């Protein structure tokens, strides 16, 4: 009886990526291909060998005994499969393709120098930044890494790491202060106008304070974008609660009070467990954490 053989060795390369990542999604990110491409390659290889190579569990792929034998043999074929083994070992050849990062608009000025530094060191990785108030679904592949301010994300199967604590306080333009007079403390609200969000943001302490403590008639402007708070304050509309790094990186706003410790906003680095240990994701996470740790105490507090 004729033995079955592998006619497309590239299919074995896909199988090794699945064995290493434990999921189709993780292998797809590592190889920079679609989820369906990885699945098709695995199916083709199993049909060619007439052998099941993986047990499909709801949480991932586990090699069968035959699959593990094939993986072990392939790992020893270094002279024929140098590129494949190089990728499994995390060498530079694996650092290519696209990495999608999601965050909110107001964090872009803070993140751009960090992103540029990473890009300069890893030019073969193409970065995409998706700014959206909506939390993109990492489990559906909408993004690989989320950088989120506010409450700690609680989605199942997410890996959540602290990034930094950003200071927040109250700001206004000099023209506003010339018009309305000085603001001497949070208990001195009379005669002042305030800027607030349209929706409640009780997970951001400074905005929650405005919602709870400032009389409705003194809230003269509302906006659904954080960047709008800063723009309105610079134009003299009123007093806004802003992140210090955002308000002080450009001229035009005056800090009114020292940042209250209880107004710190946590910044979280979020990945899906299927993607978390891929080399591109790990490299970028380490880069961001190191950069955030260097934040000036004037604008951020390292956790």
How many beta-strand elements?
Answer: 13
Give the terminus-to-terminus CA distance.
Answer: 65 Å
Tally the helices. Answer: 12
Summing up helix and strand content along with how strands pair, one would put the structural category as: alpha/beta
Give the H and E element order: HHHEEHHEHEEEEHEHEHEHEEHHE
The whole-number mean of residue pLDDT values reads: 83
Rg on CA atoms, Å = 25 Å
Largest sheet: 6 strands, mixed
Which strand-content bin applies to the residues?
15-25%
Provide the spatial order of strands within the biggest beta sheet.
4-3-5-12-6-13
Poorly predicted runs: 81-93
Shape: elongated
Structure description:
The chain has helices spanning 9-21, 24-31, 35-49, 65-75, 82-88, 108-121, 174-180, 205-213, 226-234, 244-248, 273-276, 279-292, and strands at 54-57, 60-63, 97-103, 125-131, 145-149, 158-166, 168-172, 194-197, 219-223, 240-243, 254-255, 265-272, 300-301. 33% of the residues are buried. The model is unreliable at 81-93 (pLDDT under 50). By secondary structure, it is α/β, with parallel strands linked by helices. The strands form 4 sheets. A 6-stranded mixed beta sheet has the order 4-3-5-12-6-13. Strands 10-7-11 form a 3-stranded antiparallel beta sheet, sandwiched between helices. It is elongated. The protein starts with 8 loop residues before the first helix and ends with a strand. Helix 1 (9-21) packs across helix 2 and helix 1 (9-21) crosses helix 3 (35-49). It is built from 12 helices and 13 strands.
């Amino acid at each position: 009886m004729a033995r079955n053989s592998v006619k497309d060795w590239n299919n074995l390369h896909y199988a090794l990526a699945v064995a290493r990542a434990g999921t189709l999604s993780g292998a797809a990110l590592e190889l920079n291909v679609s989820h369906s491409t990885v699945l098709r390659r695995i199916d083709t290889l199993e049909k060619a060998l007439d052998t099941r190579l993986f047990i499909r569990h709801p949480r991932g792929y586990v090699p069968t005994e035959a699959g593990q034998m094939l993986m072990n043999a392939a790992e020893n074929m270094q002279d024929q499969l140098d590129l494949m083994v190089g990728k499994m070992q995390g060498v530079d050849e694996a650092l290519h393709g696209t990495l999608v990062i999601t965050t909110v608009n107001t964090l872009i000025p803070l993140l751009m120098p960090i992103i540029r530094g990473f890009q300069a060191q890893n030019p073969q990785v193409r970065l995409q930044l998706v700014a959206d108030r909506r939390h993109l679904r990492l489990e559906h592949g909408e993004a690989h890494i989320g950088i989120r301010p506010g409450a700690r994300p609680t989605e199942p199967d997410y890996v959540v790491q602290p990034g930094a604590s950003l200071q927040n306080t109250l700001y206004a333009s000099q023209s506003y202060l010339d018009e309305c007079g000085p603001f001497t403390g949070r208990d001195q609200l009379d005669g002042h106008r305030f800027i607030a969000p349209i929706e409640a943001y009780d997970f951001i302490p400074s905005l929650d304070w405005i919602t709870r403590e400032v009389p409705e008639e003194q809230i003269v402007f509302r906006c659904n974008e954080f960047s709008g708070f800063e723009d309105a304050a610079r134009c003299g509309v009123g007093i806004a609660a802003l992140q210090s790094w955002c308000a002080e990186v450009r001229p035009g706003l005056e800090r009114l009070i020292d940042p209250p410790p209880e107004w710190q906003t946590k910044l979280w680095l979020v990945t899906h467990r299927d993607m978390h240990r891929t080399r591109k994701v790990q490299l970028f996470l380490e880069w961001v954490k190191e950069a955030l740790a260097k934040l000036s105490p004037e604008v951020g507090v390292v956790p």
